[in-house]
Here is the input.
Amino acid sequence: MSLAVLVSGTGSILDAMVDAGLPVALVVSDRPCTAVSRAAGHDIEAVVVRRHSFGDDFDRDGYSSMLADRLGERGVTLVAMAGFGTILGQPFHDRFAGRVLNTHPALLPAFPGWHGVRDALAAGVDVTGCTVHLATLEVDAGPILAQEEVAVRPDDDESSLHERIKVVERRLYVDTLRAVLDGEIPLEPPATEPEPAAEGATP
Here is the structure.
């Protein structure tokens, strides 16, 4: 498998993947960010497929199709989201169905969405954690591949709890990706382009 990592931020998860020896072939960002520079420091190809709008006029499907094409051109077969800030539309999931992994700072299906840590604290739970799952069109609703609990301490705020979850996240994500790459966690076969019809054949 050829692994691409999608980033939008600092690149701390990317660093964990590279430091653990995962064969990251390509790093892609939707905006200029520190993670792109970190990829260069690891001697990994990095490209910015820039998202030019963050408003109501954003063409999500158009962007998703363009991103899928860029990954396909480079032979990517497995995608790991690592703090990627754009929700991708149907064209991307059609192209990479069952081959896109993501993490979430809560024990899904509890506390989905952008504020999983904050929501867990607001709910007063004693335990939260981290989930590695397959990304689907519905956000944070794909099949769960791995989870690990993190205790909530009485003096935790959102920042302190999130930092402890991140420590677990970096390890759990790396271990799960390695299991996928080694075939220990089977995924859907990659989508293939239909072969062109022979000349004179009926389409």
Notes: The CA atoms of residues 54 and 86 lie 9 Å apart. The chain has six helices and seven strands.
